[in-house]
UniProtKB/TrEMBL annotation:
Species whose genome carries this gene: Sphingobium lignivorans
MF (Gene Ontology): diaminopimelate epimerase activity
Compartments, as annotated in UniProt: Cytoplasm
Name used for this protein in its record: Diaminopimelate epimerase
Pathway: Amino-acid biosynthesis; L-lysine biosynthesis via DAP pathway; DL-2,6-diaminopimelate from LL-2,6-diaminopimelate: step 1/1
Length: 275
């Protein structure tokens, strides 16, 4: 881990899923897992669910790299994507590991074209071939889940009575199950109506967050594929609501709020002091 110069950053969030956002367009930053973990640490760093690096791009207005709290670099983050137009001050096309995404401000909200979901077992990815709409896999007495890749991997359980499920034990157990070679984001969903879902997400590399944008997309899509719901679907998370729209064969649209909380400067000396 090495960072020798002060690092300006913005603290932002989408429905309480919080981010440290660093602009690397002019000044590249050598990011690695230990440095990402140090910045994300809520006691000795700034604290965040994900660290976001905004960079230059040849293919889009900007690029976006995403690091989970545990330092792992990942492909997609729905809530952070909504923060990018606030950070740059304009509607943007963003190059990510999950492809090109477009984010536009609409009224007080931000709407993102999240691209097309994938459903093949090797796309999730899973360790071996199986049906991804009703996976023949079980943990405790959870029902067969659905798996969806919306840039990053998700598994979705539809629960009649979420209060009876020990999510704090099952979330990390399922996240790291060998069935998911790249680990997985675990979505515990409850269908309120055919256009409304309540959702709790155990995020890969970050644990429970107040909201997960890609989790909301994956869950709405799984519900639509199972004909339990129709778009647009309101997904209610601890931090608030997202509106997700998708028709089979099409792109996903995610609409919700984004907030710029404050700006700061990270002291490079503090990182060397972190064990
Ligand atoms: N909070 C995000 C998802 C962040 C990445 C995820 N934990 C992963 O490892 O894939 C969102 O809003 O989508």
């Amino acid at each position: 881990m090495s960072q020798n110069t002060p690092l300006p950053f913005a603290k932002m969030h989408g429905l309480g899923n919080d981010f440290v956002v660093i602009d690397t367009r002019e000044t590249p930053v050598a990011m690695d897992a230990p440095l990402a973990r140090a910045i994300a640490d809520r006691k000795t760093g700034v604290g965040c669910d994900q660290l976001i690096l905004i960079g230059a791009s040849d293919r889009a207005d900007v690029s976006m790299r995403i690091f989970n709290q545990d330092g792992s670099e990942v492909e997609a983050c729905g809530n952070a994507t909504r923060c990018v137009p606030l950070f740059t001050g304009r509607d943007v096309t963003i190059e990510t590991k999950a492809g090109l995404l477009h984010a536009a401000r609409i009224g007080g909200l931000v709407s993102v074209d999240m691209g097309e979901p994938r459903f093949g077992w090797e796309d999730i990815p899973l360790a071996y071939a199986m049906d991804t709409l009703a996976m023949p896999a079980s943990w405790d007495d959870l029902p067969p889940p659905a798996a969806v890749n919306v840039g990053n991997p998700h598994v979705v359980f539809f629960l009649d009575d979420p209060a009876r499920v020990d999510m704090a034990r099952l979330g990390p157990l399922i996240e790291t199950d060998p069935l998911f070679p790249r680990r997985v984001n675990v979505n515990f969903a409850h269908l309120v109506d055919d256009d409304h879902i309540r959702l709790t997400v155990w995020e890969r590399g970050a644990g429970f967050t107040r909201a997960c944008g890609t989790g909301a997309c994956a869950t709405a899509i799984a519900a639509i594929r199972r004909k339990l719901a129709h778009g647009p679907v309101r997904v209610t998370l601890e931090g608030g609501d997202l509106l997700i729209d998708w028709t089979p064969g099409g792109h996903i649209t995610m609409t919700g709020p984004a907030v710029h909380v404050f700006d700061g400067v990270l002291d490079p000396g503090s990182f060397t002091a972190t064990p």
